[in-house]
Structure formats: C-alpha cells, structure tokens
Design goal:
single chain; 4-stranded mixed sheet
C-alpha cells in the first residue's frame, strides 16, 4: 500500500504563519537539486515533492528548524533535524513506509 503525504499549505512557526510550497523539482540558482529551502523574507518553506515520504518528513523538520532558528548554522540544523526524526520514529509517531511516495 502506498501512503501519500498530505500536502499542507500553511503552518505556524514561533507564532507566525508560514506558507509551504511543494514544487516537484527544487533547484538552487546554479541548478543544483535541493530537498528544501527556507525563505525568511516571505515566510515560505519549499519542500521538493519528489522525495520518498520518509525523506520528505526529515526535510520538512529540517526546514522548519531553519524557519525557527535563522542564525543557526546548517550543520547544527541538519544534526538536530536528524535526531528529532529518529526520536519520532522510535516513539512510533512516524509510521512512514521507507521509500514510498
């Protein structure tokens, strides 16, 4: 059975409403593929929709952390996002079939 992740359009981070966009492909200015981006200027998270659900959840957590903590370095955000994802998985709160989209 394939589980499709719900594509939310908005969420709240630190008391402020943010938009969430789900482009099929996401690239940076030089054309390099990206999994996600956080734009503070317009309070918008971009999450590449062509990821498997487990990676999509990890990317959403990662970009939400960027939205909450704009001055924190990438390495710390990536580490924190990974640990949060693993903890939610271990608690049984993430029941996402690996590799399913």
């Amino acid at each position: 059975m394939t589980v499709t992740a719900k594509r939310i359009r908005t969420l709240t981070l630190r008391g402020r409403k943010w938009k969430v966009r789900w482009p099929v492909k996401l690239v940076n200015d030089s054309g390099k593929p990206l999994l996600g981006q956080c734009h503070h200027c317009c309070r918008t998270l971009f999450i590449a929709a062509d990821q498997p659900n487990d990676e999509l959840a990890d990317t959403l957590i990662h970009e939400m952390l960027h939205g909450c903590f704009p001055r924190v370095r990438e390495k710390r955000i990536a580490s924190a996002a990974g640990e949060i994802f693993k903890a939610l998985e271990r608690l049984g709160l993430l029941r996402i079939p690996k590799g399913k989209t």
